[in-house]
Amino acid sequence: MTLTTERKTMTQPSFGQQIKSTVFNEFSWIWGGTIALFILCSFVAPGVVRPAAISSMLPFAAILAITAVGMTIVIQQRGLDMSLPGMMTIAGLLFAQIGFTTGSTLLAVPLTLAIALGIGIVNGLLVAKLNITPIVTTLATNAILMGAVRAVSGGSPMTAPAELAEFSHAKLFGVPMTLILAMLFIIVISIVTKRTIPGRRFVAVGANPAAATAAGIPILRYQVATYAIASLCFAVAGMLFTGFIGSASQTAGVDYLLPAIAAVVVGGTPFNGGRGSVIASGVAALFMTQLGQMVLALGAGTSVQLLVQALAIIIAVAVRHIPEYFGRP
């Protein structure tokens, strides 16, 4: 055996190790867990797995998946964006306000997204440039946004523009448009982060900012862009939610903060930066939504639903250590 062959044998994992790392990894468990949940639902709450129930559940799962995508990339940068509730809520209100004022929803979309982009950039600059703790920064931003919500709404909900409501309820070949949009978000961001040079640099910045700086990577640019993209995700989710329920309320995004974080954790993305999977977070969003449907069908109250979400997070964190067990000699 030549020296080159020996080196390849030493560095390349065996076929069995490759299969083990693919099946037993921190991002693969959510697939089996989601399938198991649907099987469990068919026994304990068969009503929630009927086609009509699943069809009505998917748009909410899609909206949660979009928020989870934004939260995933922030957590990959060792941050946490607590401005999600305010961003979702103000985006729905701004879209409705601009749409009715200008009479054009085509104009309302880019203007709302531009405002969201600006807010995200400010968040990113405060975190990356001034080194303010992400939780403190985004909590402050959320407080400002919720104040803006009251100023824009005047204390009462606004009716969603008809075009937005039609789009949010529309289907393409029987698939909700909200779900298609969520899948586009997941696919595009997954390809960018895993298959492109900027995406690999983004992962490197999240994994070790000091090493990334030493390697000549402009970490400020990536950190600011992270919060900007997250705000765009939250704004899109807020507009879709407003269109789906038919009105822009003052509390539209409040119920999405914990489920979004839970979806990221359950999906397997760790809080120590770098590694992450928006695909797993998207599947986890489906898991969390269906879990909520099952709990509701069993007649549980809000307190029980929150308890179940907390247990899901704890179990997900525990399951994450199973691949380490299988990887031991």
TrEMBL record:
Its main location: membrane. It is a multi-pass membrane protein. It comes from the Bacteria. Keywords: Cell membrane, Membrane, Transmembrane, Transmembrane helix. It is found in: Cell membrane. One of its GO terms (molecular function) is transmembrane transporter activity. One of its GO terms (cellular component) is plasma membrane. InterPro entries: ABC_transp_permease. The chain crosses the membrane at residues 27-45, 57-75, 82-100, 106-128, 135-153, 173-192, 224-246, 252-271, 306-323. This is Ribose transport system permease protein.
